[in-house]
Amino acid sequence: MFNRYIDVLTNLPSYSKNVFRKDYFSWLLNQCRGWGKFSYGLLIFNFILQIFSLLQSFNVAPLQSVVSFIGGNLSVACVIGISNRSGIQGWAGAVSAICIASVGFMAGNYATAWEQIGYLLFLDFFCILDPKWNDNIQAEKFENRFEWIAYVIFFGLAWAVLYYIFSLTSDPRVFLDSLNLAMAITGSLLELNRKREQYYVWTISSIFTIALWMQTMLQGDGNFALIFSYGVFFLNDMYAFFSVRGWFRSNTHTEA
């Protein structure tokens, strides 16, 4: 379950050299090609929604609105990259995580903020370096019920620990925040291991996160940008389930 973490950390010096190779940036650009039309449509649709959100909220909170705009667009590019098994998702995820975490702290939505920091440290960083996320990315599936059991136990333990930690704070949404963060951690582990079952977790997580940010909005914080993004995340999850290019239909990243 944790072999990819061990492999990357053990081979950190050699894997790091791949990031700074001569053709790295052109390779990243090529990773944005060959996606399905639905994916490009989602990217454009989200960009338009983010512009409307930016115009609506800029006068009230200009800094937060601009950071949300950047994070919202890059986060969608990240999840679309994941669905298309594209190496761009590592960097898009890392930059968006910094932006969304900043907005989360400013809005008092600490669960989302720490969720993004967790993505940055335990997912984006490793996906950027892991060669299995940078060359002919393969989708894998659970081979037996014991893998299901192992990840369910991991989720349960993560939720219990996080619930206890959040209960020691003044967080007004202990149950929802701890549940959402536990799902994010479990989904991250599944994604790093390239398991297609990650999309069961991402779909549920998208629904809960939309609910979380709507509750934050009702309490007077946050803005529509991230709600739009997570709505697009949900549509992207459906793409991963049902598209012929998705994780449940094909095994390799489709090149242009």
Could you describe the 3D structure shown?
The chain has 256 residues and is mainly alpha-helical. It has one domain (2-242). Helices cover 73% and strands 0% of the residues. It has 11 helices and no strands. α5 (62-83) packs parallel to α11. Residues 252-256 have low confidence and may be disordered.
Question: Which terms would index this structure?
Answer:
single chain; 256 residues; mainly alpha; 73% helix; globular; disordered C terminus
Radius of gyration: 18 Å
| Percent helix | over 70%
Helix-strand topology string: HHHHHHHHHHH
**Number of alpha- plus pi-helical segments:** 11
How many runs of DSSP E, i.e. beta strands? Answer: 0
* Uncertain residue ranges: 252-256
Mean pLDDT: 85
Distance between the first and last residues' Cα:
32 Å
Q: Which strand-content bin applies to the residues?
A: under 5%
Structural class: mainly alpha
Largest sheet: none
Number of domains: 1
Q: What is the 3D form?
A: globular
Subcellular location: Membrane
GO cellular component, one term: membrane
Membrane topology: Multi-pass membrane protein
Transmembrane segments: 38-55, 61-83, 90-111, 146-166, 199-218, 224-242
